Please model this.
Amino acid sequence: MDHFELRQGVLHAEDVPLTRIAEEAGTPTYVYSTATLERHVRVFREGLGAIPDPWIAFAVKANPNKAVLATLARMGLGADVVSGGELSRALAAGMDPARIVFSGVGKTGDEMAQGLRAGIGQFNVESEPEAETLSAVAQALGLTARIAFRVNPDVDAGTHAKISTGKAENKFGVPIDRAPRAYAAAATLPGLAIQGVAVHIGSQLTDLAPSRAAFERIGALIAELRAAGHNITHADLGGGLGVPYDPSLPLPPDPAAYGAMVREVTAGWNARLIFEPGRVIVGNAGVLLARVIRVKQGVTQPFVIVDAAMNDLLRPSLYEAWHNIRAVIPRGDGFTATIVGPVCETGDTFARDRPMDRVEEGDLVAFMTAGAYGATMASTYNSRGLTPEIIVSGDKWATVRNRQPIEALIAADSLPPWIEESAPQ
Ligand code: LLP
Model:
């Protein structure tokens, strides 16, 4: 459920008409709803139910905007970060370092040092050589890294191949069969304190069975590790819960169903559970607001050309992702159209042959469920500055990232001395 709804024929974000935002801030722009963010955190927590003191580490990669992170920090969420940049953002937004988990296969020594100095709660180590480097960095700083190994359980998550992470052939984690050896080796390394096991099998999961299978394997591994003398106090179950994009499809499992499954599988574990939800918290809390530049009649159907493009919302081009597209002021009838952006690539297509609200030149449209992996995956391709981000709360709204002017893009470049020094020919 979200707080984007029609009121008197105009799509609103909470109490603010999207038309007003478009007039004052221009388009394209991302718009987030605070009430939806807060609701999703509550629903996720309630879904976990009786699990004692769950550590909810929001996957910053889904939406690293400072205002979004600060909203979540105020609700007690920590962060799952995958780079020094994300760590800096989480800290800048006021997240408690003790509730920060550092994931990722390619942490550099500098990033490890940053995490250690910040006192983060856990490093999810993805390989044996990474454990050795982390040990050396921690020792040099005179600090101790609390670690879990991210384990690859070899489970097919049943999602898009580009966002599947738990199969043996994926780059993530230590193969589960090798995990006991990795823990034994890490136990001998100075500067490391083993505290847990971590797993994450993929994103936009619409079936609980693969997660259940992965968690069962983790449960068996925890028992094996404890029998070998390791002190396993934490189990990080990753993120991945899917959200509804297409209202005509069956709903993905909700946090209550997910929580019930987790409680059942982890009942005897006696470990503090960590969760890394991203999409389920922010996905439906954001829309990308765009204006129709013109409607061009193709051979078979109209092309609706909007002022947002693949550089602003990459998901449809990269994953054939489906986003609902709604008119901000529906005219009351529909048509079938192909919705494209102005970028010079055929891949700059948001939807093909899509039955949707009929729109005309100048109309506003909203790409729904764009709060996760939307603005954060944007680029400046075709020299289009990054879109603004706006957050709404009740009848208030604020710009929380400015539109990037072309001057800023040009100013970030510089000329090499041999061009600067010589006068133009
Ligand atoms: N934890 C780890 C270790 C992850 O790699 C991810 C996502 C998450 C948590 C959060 O997963 P979520 O709850 O959001 O599904 N750009 C793609 C999604 C990539 C997900 C990468 N990892 C998309 O737009 O669909």
About this structure: The domain at 104-275 is CATH 3.20.20.10 (TIM Barrel). The mean pLDDT is 96. Residues 9 and 336 are 21 Å apart (CA to CA).
